[in-house]
Amino acid sequence: MEQRCCPTCGGDFRPSDLKDGRRNCNTCQKKKRTRYFLSEEYLNQTFTTDWGKQLVKKLGLFLEEHEIRFETRGNMLPKALTIFQEAERRFKGPEWMEQGWLEEMIEKMGATLYPTFFRTFLIQEQFLVESSKEEKTLHSLQAQIGKLPQGYRRAIEVYCNERLAYRNRQIQLNAKRPLALKTLTSDLDTLSRFVRWLTTSLPELTGWDMVQEEHVYAFLLTLNPKTRELYRKDLYLFFRLARKRRLITHVPLLHLPGRELPRTIEPLTLQEQRSVARAIRENLFTRPEEAWLSALCFYHGLSSSQLCRLKTEQVDIERGMISVEERPPIDLLAEDFLLLEQFLHRRKELPYAQKKSYLFISNQKKLDDKPMTQEYVAEKVKALTGHTSQCLRITCFATLSARYGPQYLVEAFGLSLTQASRYADLKEFLLEEEVKQQRDAFSKLLRS
Question: Is the pLDDT of residue 376 over 60?
Fold first, then answer.
């Protein structure tokens, strides 16, 4: 009779295990393999120095501490041990290990080394230095510029250097909001997309001097109206700077005022708002994380980026408020306390929750304490309510603005006047309020 369960752990065999005729399941075999690689007998046979053995033992403790799966450990340890063996032959001690050599060995070993875990271990042991996000972005920008055709590369390179120099001046002058690298990356993506279209659709053009206005508008017509207007402004700024630096002979685009386009996301109707509120209330105990995220978007107007950056220290239960960057604090209501209580109770059940500083965490991120992505928030909110987090936020602002006026959004939510004017016109609201006051005064006079 064919054995269907593993005699060691009692788990079911995989079809591949049955096909290969294995006596134990894959997980038990990986556990046995991991224990063998970390055993004193194997280390004494493989390594000749004490510091090499200590590195392997520290790596084993690191994997155990972060609860890495045994399948991953079994595939990763042989590659890591090969690197440490080569380090023993090449260097006198761990302090002599070179960062460039380690990077080269990791790349040579390939994806089976699981470089995320191994690189994190090397950074923790100070063998590698973690490059900052700004350095990675700058390297990415330089690599992207280097891939452009020769006839279009020089002008884009000068444009990016000018924008970076402008950003550095802002930082030196202690500007409150200097130019973000994300903005520069977006501008480079716009120019790269335009260059790709030119080389594909108009291969006879060899540089910016041959680009005419009809070519620019032909490219803009391939985009949707919202994106088209943004691309047109970015291209105009690029052409102006290139003409000023005498990199092109003319500006192939007219300076036209921006057109107001209709909103792409409309606020929810009253019936849809009732269904969202019902979904939050009914899933309070079964899906507390989705309900709490949806409530913060729908009732308090928090964006996905603000939700991702929320930390546990910003939640003050005694005072009944949540501190949020760049906006007034949130005052919690009775229903909010119930949602928060259920969410925190579910969060405590995660074994690594005490080590995380951010309020919203996932079981997929164990190695680092970083915020969740905006896609994570959007997926959770959409799964519960059927609407995006952005749509719920717009509904919150539109409803409050219709009742209290756009100035209320500025004072209560920290929006700018420009952003608040997207939901209502302040002059029209003040005019309506004045008419309403005069009508009430006239009615009172008639009754008297």
Answer: yes
User: Does one domain contain both 278 and 397?
Assistant: yes
Structural contact between residues 347 and 412, judged by C-beta atoms closer than 8 angstroms: no
- Domain C-terminal end among 244, 261, 280: 244
Question: Is 80 exceeded by the pLDDT of residue 433?
Answer: no
DSSP 72-104: HHHHHHHHHHHHHHHHHHH-SSGGG--HHHHHH
Sorted by sequence, the CB contacts under 8 Å of residue 329 that are 6+ apart come out as 321, 322, 323
Do strands 330-331 and 315-316 pair parallel, antiparallel, or not at all (unpaired)? unpaired
357: tokens are: 């500083």
pLDDT, position 118: 79
- Is 150 found in the same domain as 223? yes
pLDDT at residue 278, as a whole number: 93
d(CA 232, CA 256) in angstroms, rounded, equals 9
| Alpha carbons 59 and 181: distance in angstroms, whole number | 36
pTM across the whole model: 0.58
Q: Quick check: 424 and 401 in contact, CB under 8 A?
A: yes
Count CB neighbours of 32 within 10 A.
Answer: 13
